[in-house]
Design goal:
By secondary structure, the chain is α/β, with parallel strands linked by helices. The protein is globular. A 6-stranded antiparallel β-sheet has the order 2-1-4-5-6-7, covered by helices on one side. Strands 8-12-13-3-14-15 form a 6-stranded mixed β-sheet, sandwiched between helices. Strands 9-10-11 form a 3-stranded antiparallel β-sheet. The protein has 11 helices and 15 strands. It has 2 domains: 157 residues, Rossmann fold; 184 residues, Glutathione S-transferase Yfyf (Class Pi), Chain A, domain 2, CATH 1.20.1050.90. Helix 4 crosses helix 5 and helix 5 crosses helix 9. The two termini are 20 Å apart.
Length: 383
Amino acid sequence: MTRLTLRDFRSYGTADVQLGSGLTVVSGANGAGKTNLLEALYFACTGRACRTANERELVRFGAAVTRLELTAEDDHATHTLTVGFQPGEAKRMTADGATVERLTDTATRPLVSVFLPDRLELVTGVPALRRAHLDQVVAALWPARVATRRAYSAALAQRNALLTSIRAGRASRASLPAWDAELARHGVDLMQQRSETVERFEPAFVEHAADLGLEGDPAVSYRPRSRATTVAALAEELSERVSSDLERGFTGHGPHRDDLVLSRAGRDLRTYGSRGQQRLGLLALLLAERTALADERGAPPLLLLDDVMSELDVERRERLVTLLCARGQSVLTTTELAHVPGAEGPGVVRLVVADGSVHHEDAGPDPEEDAVPPPRAQGMPGG
């Protein structure tokens, strides 16, 4: 990723950001808009927000629409992605000039991973968050496999609807075996894909966790709810639980109840880890997934790290920067450059955020540009 231009996104009227090929450090005071810039990068890569479920919040107060344009390069060509969003309207997204329904299905888009302080919930929160995250990693490693998760979700919705109809006396239990078999068919594939994915990045997790100083034999493991390895076995498990499913009104067994477990010393970090250990575990997980994606796809994803240094000691800060600089592209925010070892070194791009603008530290802001108020967006942008 080489450049991002945006208009009326969060606290920014306009911004034109050039990124480094390795580490880019974004510094500024609290509330200056550093996290907003990371969110803009994520939104431009995926067409989705990473901090809010209410995407109306992405449009700058008083503006009608936001528009972002991202330029990225690979070994073959330069690519351009655009996202235009007006609340109440469908997003308008393009990849190299062609309209697309989802950026995440676009082969030329840069992969991206993000660490936010709130994302510690991935370790401490409910299993559904970790399942969704694991499925995103599966799809990033092997894009065609996203169809498995969608097929399983569709079959699960149909089986749950049938359970509701049976409870209401509108349908017979005779229809359930067919949906048990359908759900089991996609469920076994989904479990196999999740297991393969965790096996792929587990060695890197152990290595990165040790590099970051997470002691006590750190591990990551896939914990499926079902022990079935065949379609017939999973269908039988579902059949055995029909009575309890009818009592609840939904399917209580299957891959939609699986979990991804981070642990140290044989204990789940979610329950027994300190906040610092949970933070290191999450960082190790993201770095491990980045390593696996680089090996499989040929290039590591862009890694966005917000306020990651604030709770790390000096030694762990140095270890993290070493890992970031070893491979791939990263953007890291901080309130003080001194918190990022090597931030003043050659090859590191330094951006400063202040008063709703972004500038390169060496160049400084352009006084004439700052004196001109940003243009108000009129209507939905084209393209």
